[in-house]
Design brief:
The complex is a heterodimer. Chain A contains 23 helices and no strands. The termini of chain A are close together. By secondary structure, chain B is an alpha/beta fold. Helices cover 47% and strands 20% of the residues of chain B. The two termini of chain B are 21 Å apart. Classes of the chains: A mainly alpha, B alpha/beta.
Chain lengths: 469, 140
């Protein structure tokens, strides 16, 4: 069983029906309030805009947050029933731990990626493989999974995939077979650590998990998932890999070697040292008054900036503010749903489905999150699902003891994103990179590789959750 | 002597287009130039954090794909040159064709599910190039 502080504070008490009414979602007649209806409509519009790519994610989230605040201040002045959330509530609904953790890791990643170390590693794998295509592919997929556990998935994909495409062409194999496996590995590997994937960071931060607590619970299932992915890839493409070229063009190999050299040894050494210390601090942070992971990430980034002394203007440009604003907007939109009680209204209905069965709730959460993440972006889904999981954790007997529904949400959201190419950001980026090399990956083509791996890994996750908790 | 501009992305589906351009250059004694266009607009579809110089990464990949095309030409006894540019694919192809004084632009006919464009789309694009620049376009 996990220690007490692991679970959010609201879990320390159970909500009565009166408490639920007090949330504001349900009127005494059991109907939903006008503010909750408006908040839900705004949220649904944001969600559709993001999922169907009608608007840029950041624009959609920011617009949704702005509309909620405008409705509160303008319409709410005349009709108090239309107040969704005020500015103070909006600021409180943002999980700043997530924002600063992501920002710290972005700074870290920006400095490290400039050294070309990831390409160097990928090329060393190619060199060590000595022309054994299967071995090279296995190591490339593993490298992507491992890198994604420690660093941002999209960045890992952007750095490793272009070189993988080139290596595949040198080896005479179709790059799609390796690149899709790499992107699946990045989503599976991302589930292993608190900083690996946005759903992991969001849920981990929400329930106040330390880096090591998270690792103990999620790393084993991610490792088993990676093994399953490697076996599936071998089964699916083993024949193609065995037909790879044995005589490689020296001109092309030389070109790859030149492209993959370390560009700045001094910065690399500094980044590796600070990175190792930051990782160590992530593990022992809980000793120091439960230091949040965001503080560790920011401290590591600050020390690295002070030591490496990069061009700060360039550094600021490299931090992706668009993503951070997207997260802030999204937290506010979901905060509006929570403040008006729209989330509670939905949670009550979901609880009716699960009844008092924890097993059924685990299955619903894992597969429901998996299915949803396959068709919509898993980040807004996770942020919206969290308050529902809070509610179910309080209401379903046994759920609060080990937080199993939170683990189910993480695994469902992380692994479910693998089913389709719109399921998560790394998928979209990898498909775009393949198209740049002349390889078009259709929805069906991605599904052919992604769906079986998703089903297998969700089955593994389900077994892990039911047996372990 | 003419100048053939062959727009290519690399990949197996491009090999037949490259071979056709190589054969034409050999037959007519024309200069052959392979063009790769770096287009990062696919990143607009996501708000995911991009902390990498994507253009730089794709330029490296593009140069590698062009190197493969040059090797392919050399194997068939043709010396080819390369150009790697950044921008919207269609605009850049048209612009480059005018800039280098191309006499023929070769575009690859879509084949198989992995090809990038559908044929109607490509034919329309070819017509636009011919209309706007007066340069002959061949879809192979």
């Amino acid at each position: 069983m996990l220690p007490g502080p692991f679970l959010p504070q609201l879990l320390s008490s159970s909500l009565s029906e009166t408490d639920l009414l007090a949330f504001g979602s349900l009127t005494s007649e059991g109907s939903i309030s006008p503010a909750a209806i408006i908040a839900a409509i705004i949220f649904i519009l944001v969600f559709i805009s993001i999922s169907l790519r009608l608007l840029h994610e950041t624009t959609a989230a920011l617009l949704g947050a702005a509309v909620m605040l405008l409705v509160t201040y303008i319409a709410g002045t005349y009709y108090p029933d239309l107040r969704i959330l005020n500015f103070e509530q909006a600021m409180l609904s943002v999980d700043w731990n997530v924002i600063f953790l992501i920002m710290g890791m972005m700074i870290f990643m920006a400095i490290l990626s400039d050294t070309n170390v990831f390409k160097w590693l990928a090329y060393q794998i190619f060199r060590l493989g000595k022309g054994n295509t299967l071995l090279i592919v296995v190591m490339l997929i593993t490298l992507t999974g491992f890198t994604s556990a420690l660093l941002n998935n999209v960045t890992a994909i952007l750095l490793i995939v272009p070189l993988t495409i080139q290596l595949s062409l040198v080896l005479g194999i179709n790059p799609i077979s390796v690149v899709i496996a790499e992107v699946l590995a990045s989503n599976i590997g991302g589930a292993a650590t608190l900083i690996g994937d946005p759903p992991s960071t969001i849920v981990g931060s929400h329930i106040g998990l330390s880096f090591s607590e998270y690792l103990v619970h999620m790393a084993p299932v991610a490792v088993v998932g990676m093994i399953a992915l490697l076996l599936f890839n071998r089964l699916q493409y083993g024949k193609e890999y065995s037909n790879g070229k044995t005589t490689l063009s020296p001109v092309l190999v030389d070109s790859l070697a030149e492209e993959s050299s370390i560009e700045d040894y001094v910065t690399l050494r500094k980044a590796l040292l600070v990175g190792s210390l930051t990782l160590l601090l992530f593990f022992i942070a809980e000793i120091f008054s439960q230091m949040p992971p965001s503080v560790v990430a920011l401290a590591g980034a600050a020390v690295l900036i002070a030591w490496v002394r990069p061009d700060l203007e360039h550094m600021v440009h490299e931090v992706d503010w668009t993503t951070l604003i997207f997260f802030i907007g999204l937290f506010v939109v979901v905060g509006g749903m929570e403040a008006t009680g729209a989330i509670d209204w939905l949670a009550v209905r979901i609880q009716l489905l699960a009844g008092e069965s924890l097993t059924l709730a685990v299955l619903l959460t894992t597969w429901g999150a998996g299915f949803a993440s396959a068709i919509v972006d898993n980040i807004p889904f996770t942020v919206a699902a969290l308050p529902i999981i809070d509610f179910l954790t309080i209401e379903i007997p046994g759920a609060a003891e080990n937080g199993v529904l939170y683990w189910a949400l993480i695994l469902g959201a992380d692994f479910g994103g693998n089913a389709t190419y719109i399921g998560s950001a790394p998928n979209i980026v990898a498909v775009g990179l393949l198209a740049q090399a002349g390889y078009r990956v259709t929805f069906g083509r991605f599904l052919r590789d992604g769906l079986p791996v998703t089903v297998i890994t969700l089955l593994i996750a389900t077994m892990w959750l039911l047996l372990r908790y | 002597m003419g100048k053939i501009l062959c727009a290519t992305r690399g990949g197996e589906e491009s090999y037949c287009t490259q071979d056709e351009a190589i054969a034409l250059a050999k037959e007519q004694g024309d200069d052959l130039i392979f063009l790769y266009v770096v287009d990062t607009h696919f990143l607009d579809k996501t708000a995911a954090p991009i902390m990498v110089d994507v253009e730089d990464e794709l330029t490296k990949m593009g140069k590698f794909l062009l190197l493969m095309a040059v090797q392919r030409a050399a194997e068939q006894g043709v010396k080819a040159e390369t150009i790697c540019r950044k921008g919207h694919v269609r605009e850049t192809i048209k612009q480059t064709a005018v800039e280098i004084g191309a006499t023929l632009v070769i575009l690859g006919r879509p084949c198989g599910e992995e090809s990038k464009y559908d044929i109607a789309d490509l034919l329309a694009f070819a017509t636009v190039i011919e209309y706007d620049t007066g340069i002959e376009v061949k879809i192979v």
